[in-house]
Each structure stands twice: as C-alpha cells, then as structure tokens.
C-alpha cells in the first residue's frame, strides 16, 4: 500500500479529528492560552488526550506528569509497528502514530509510506481544526452543535473498534470490564492506562492456561 492509499484510508480519522481539534482550540482559548500557544500545542505535540490534559492542568508538574503517563501506551504502539513494518524514517513515523493511525495500521497490510499517508491526513485535520477552533470557536459555543463535537472522538474510537471485535472478542471484553471498574471506582483518568496494561497481561495469561490444558 502506498502513500495515496494511506491518505484515502485516513478519511474516517479526518472526520473524527477535525471536530475534536476544533473543540480543543475553543477550550484552550477559554482556559487563557494565547492563539499562538494553542496553535503550537497541536503543531508540536499532536496528542489529543495529552493536549486536553495540558490545558486543564492546575499546576506545572501536573501539566507534565499526566500527559507523560497518558502517552506511555505509544511505547507499545511503536514497538509493534517497528516489528511488523520496515521503517526507514522511524522518528517521522513515530511522531504521527496516534491511536487511530495505529489501529488502522495493524488492521491492514501497511507499509511505511501507507502509514505516512494516514499520518498526514490525521495531522492536517488536527492542525487545521485547531485553527478553526481558535478563530471561529466563539460562534460554535452558543449553538447546539458544540456538545456533539466533544463526543466525536468517542464515536471515532468505537468505529475503529468494530472491525476488531470478531477477531479479538476476549481482549475487547476484558478491556471493557477493566475500564468500567476504573470508571465506577472514580478513577476514570486511569481507565485507559489500566486497561492498556492489564488487558494484554490477563489475556496472554489466559491463553497460556488454555494452551496448557489443551
């Protein structure tokens, strides 16, 4: 698969990223960030959850520590991609390896050029969406459309999950249960990290037990 196919495959990601990045632009400006600071967040960081954590942090240490922990999952993403795809530009590929890009990559026979196509589409949507939020956000806040912008990233994750449910039913169920436990325990900020760490460990252990019994 080449760059153009990757760009075409990025269409669902673009449709999900643009409204979320618009929301980020609005919230960052509301939180007191300047137009330049808001734009640079998306241009240089390009990590949705971390950017939202950054603008909502109460202290400087919190603005550093929380995003770092949120992004630890990318170590796993990079390792998997490095083992399955021949990379000639690893730093460039790693920069754009978001959750959605990774999910699309592992569900296709991806090449590095294909991944770059995915990443360019996703990155462009995120940066231009942030600009739209910076300059036109005030017009959106007073409309019924604004609450739906916040939900769009959740909808995007669900759409990406659907193709994998049949192949990874056990992992999906275990991950969902773990996330729910954290959520209803009042630890929603740890749900993604906890599920990301515990699900592979538990499902791998279960697989070993079943193999041993078989």
UniProtKB/TrEMBL annotation:
It is found in: Cell membrane. InterPro entries: Brnchd-chn_aa_trnsp_permease (IPR011606). The chain crosses the membrane at residues 6-27, 39-60, 120-141, 148-165, 177-203. Keywords: Cell membrane, Membrane, Transmembrane, Transmembrane helix, Transport. It comes from the Archaea. The keyword Ubl conjugation does not apply. Its main location: membrane. Pfam families: AzlC. It is a multi-pass membrane protein. This is AzlC family ABC transporter permease.
């Amino acid at each position: 698969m080449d760059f153009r196919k990757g760009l075409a495959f990025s269409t669902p990601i673009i449709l999900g990223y643009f409204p979320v990045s618009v929301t980020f632009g609005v919230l960052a400006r509301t939180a007191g960030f300047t137009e330049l600071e808001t734009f640079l967040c998306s241009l240089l960081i390009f990590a949705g959850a971390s950017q939202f954590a950054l603008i909502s942090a109460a202290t400087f240490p919190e603005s550093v520590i929380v995003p770092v922990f949120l992004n630890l999952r990318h170590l796993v993403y990079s390792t998997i991609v490095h083992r399955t795809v021949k990379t000639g530009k690893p730093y460039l590929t790693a920069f754009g390896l978001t959750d959605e890009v990774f999910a699309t990559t592992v569900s296709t026979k991806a090449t590095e050029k294909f991944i770059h196509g995915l990443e360019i589409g996703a990155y462009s949507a995120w940066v231009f969406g942030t600009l739209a939020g910076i300059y036109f956000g005030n017009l959106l806040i007073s409309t019924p459309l604004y609450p739906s912008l916040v939900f769009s990233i959740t909808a995007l994750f669900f759409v990406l999950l659907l193709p994998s449910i049949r192949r990874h039913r056990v992992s999906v169920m275990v991950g969902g249960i773990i996330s729910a436990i954290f959520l209803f325990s009042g630890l929603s900020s740890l749900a993604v990290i906890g599920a990301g760490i515990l699900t592979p460990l538990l499902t791998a252990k279960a697989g070993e037990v079943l193999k041993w019994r078989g």
